[in-house]
Amino acid sequence: MVYERQMGVPRFECNEYEEKSKNYVVLIPIINDGERIVKELERACGNNVPEYADIVICDGGSTDGCTEENMLCKLKVNTLLVKQDIGRQGAQLRMGIWWALQRGYKGVITIDGNNKDSIEDVPQFIEKLEEGYDLVQGSRFVKGGKAINTPFIRTVSVRLIHAPIISLTAHRKFTDTTNAYRAYSARYLLDERVQPFRNIFMTYELLAYLSVRATQIGMNACEIPVTRAYPQTGKIPTKIRFFKGNAELMKILIQNAFGAYKPK
């Protein structure tokens, strides 16, 4: 089924393999993540994650075979959403979040599809949502979290630049603010003061905005420990180009701090 562009949502195709079976959903944005997403899904199955939440792939238009239907079904993927429109991560997340809310989930967990994050920790995110938190941020830097082989420049930029600016904007301390492994309550996402379905969220704007908006409007937020592991050797799995990507992130941070993404 193809969903034509809804208000603030890109055009996308929905391949539903199973009906909704859980109260929560794990959204995994990918594009040409190859064996990384396969290994991540295998880890999810090995740790019984599909027993806690439906797993949904939010594909940006992969051409490397990583979204082959038989493989996804074998790995207990509930649904494949394929963006057929402009935009990058922000557009993929808007697509997935909109669809998840239409389907009636109580909360949404997001995680990258590059096999760096501890997908086995999904039950801990659900536990916090059940306790009444509206934003649950995964952090490798809090007690119990693990940062494995994190590049030095990445650690410095997160801890000394990104996290302090986000914390100042959110009026609450956060420690791992570039980490897309997090959870949102449906109450938060549907609040009129949030409005995530806007075309200004094309790249990494939505992650920055949703990091701060919850506490700005008096909702409950917390951090929980997670593991983020980079490979010991080889190319670092990331979609962010070192100079252009980091410059873009800084621009988004500043705009977010000055309220550029707040609803009018």
Textual characterization of the structure:
The chain has 264 residues and is α/β, with parallel strands linked by helices. The chain has eight helices and eleven strands. The strands form two sheets. The protein has a nine-stranded mixed beta sheet, with helices on both faces. Helix 1 links the parallel strand 3 and strand 4. Helix 5 packs parallel to helix 7. The radius of gyration is 17 Å and the shape is globular. The relative contact order is 0.16. The model has no long low-confidence stretch (mean pLDDT 95). This is Glycosyltransferase family 2 protein. Keywords: Membrane, Transmembrane, Transmembrane helix. InterPro entries: Glycosyltransferase_2 (IPR050256), Nucleotide-diphossugar_trans (IPR029044).
What order do the helices and strands come in, and which of them pair?
Elements: E1 2-3, E2 12-16, E3 24-30, H1 34-46, E4 54-59, H2 69-74, E5 79-83, H3 89-103, E6 107-110, H4 122-130, E7 135-139, E8 146-148, H5 152-170, E9 182-185, H6 186-190, H7 205-216, E10 221-225, E11 227-229, H8 242-257
Parallel strand pairs: 3-4, 3-6, 4-5, 7-10, 8-11
Antiparallel strand pairs: 1-2, 2-5, 6-9, 7-9
What is the averaged pLDDT score? 95
Question: What topology, given as strand order, has the largest sheet?
Answer: 1-2-5-4-3-6-9-7-10
**Strand element count:** 11
Pairing-aware structural class of the strands and helices? alpha/beta
**What distance lies between the first and last C-alpha atoms, to the nearest angstrom?**
33 Å
Largest sheet: 9 strands, mixed
Beta-strand fraction estimate = 15-25%
Number of helices: 8
Order of helical and strand elements: EEEHEHEHEHEEHEHHEEH
What is the global morphology?
A: globular
Multimerization state: single chain
Rg from alpha-carbon coordinates: 17 Å
Low-pLDDT regions: none
Approximately how much helix is present in the residues? 25-40%
